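Weekly structure sync, notes
Attendees: PL, DS, HV (note-taker this week)

Item 1: Syncollin
DS walked through the input record. Source organism listed as Salvator merianae. Sequence as pasted into the shared doc:
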Amino acid sequence: MNVACGLLLLPLLLAGAWAQCPVPADLKKENGTKDCAQMYTDNSPYYDQCCGGSVLVVSPGDDQPYMPSAFNNKISSLVVAQRCTLTVWSRKGKAGKTRTFKTGAYPRLQEYRKGIFGDWDNSISAYYCTCS
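Item 1 (cont.): predicted structure, written out as tokens:
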């Protein structure tokens, strides 16, 4: 490979150095037990750079009517594990708007509508996660 080809491939190689959403099947702890979901504080206009920042790991059965303060209204990306659902609320105490996310990666929550004028970016204040 010549130098020009190497320079053209460099941005593609560096893209892997940024955050990227994990595959739902990969949401497992080191001991092999399954996580229900992972929520992230950062996203990006570029999908391969989403799911970055601080991570909130959600276990199956977690029922949090109040988000930890470091994550309250700061979630911008999330991934839900296989055979799991994550239900979220826009206000503390499981009040306000609600949405259920099924298995999959949701790298940019601003693409998911919350009512007429809002979206789910930086809008999650409570959650409940279940797996079958």
